[in-house]
Amino acid sequence: MQPIPIGDVFGILCVSYKIEFRFLQRSSRLPLPFQEQADYLNAEVEYNRFLGASFLIAEFSTRHVVSSFFSLPFEDWNDDAAAYIRFLQAELPFRISDKRWKRWHLNNASTNYVGRKIAVSWEPPT
Questions:
Q1: Which residue in 21, 67, 69, 83 has the fewest CB atoms around it within 10 Å?
Q2: What pTM value is reported for the model?
């Protein structure tokens, strides 16, 4: 049996690896609270994306892609949230995009979550 030539292997398959994680407090390194799906009524906000469940997916195919879903347990976008993202960005080997951010809140009937796009900035004031 002949080995599969390296140049052709990813044309016929895609290898994916998904890792779920929790965000930690900056000082104590203990998990931040409210990072369980049950904390948010198991709300699926996009296909296979649940509030309270953060993950990273690496896919290797003809194109290599890394995507992430961050479910941050901050009630509002404020100075604490921005400071946390600055800390996180300093630790990550990739750049966090400032696009596609949403703030999720309970609907009036308290039966599901509704997302609203928000503009975010975590750059320190100049």
A1: 67
A2: 0.79
CA dihedral sign of residues 33, 35, 36, 38? positive
CB neighbourhood size of 32 (10 A): 14
Going residue by residue through the chain, which has 126 residues, state the pLDDT in tens, using 9 for 90 and above: 665 555 555 567 888 999 999 999 988 999 999 999 999 999 999 999 999 999 999 998 888 888 899 999 988 888 888 889 888 888 888 888 888 889 999 999 999 999 999 888 777 666
d(CA 111, CA 90): 37
What's the gap between Cα 67 and its chain centre?
8
Token pair 């990739």 is found at: 94
DSSP 5-26: PGGGGGGS--EEEEEEE--B-T
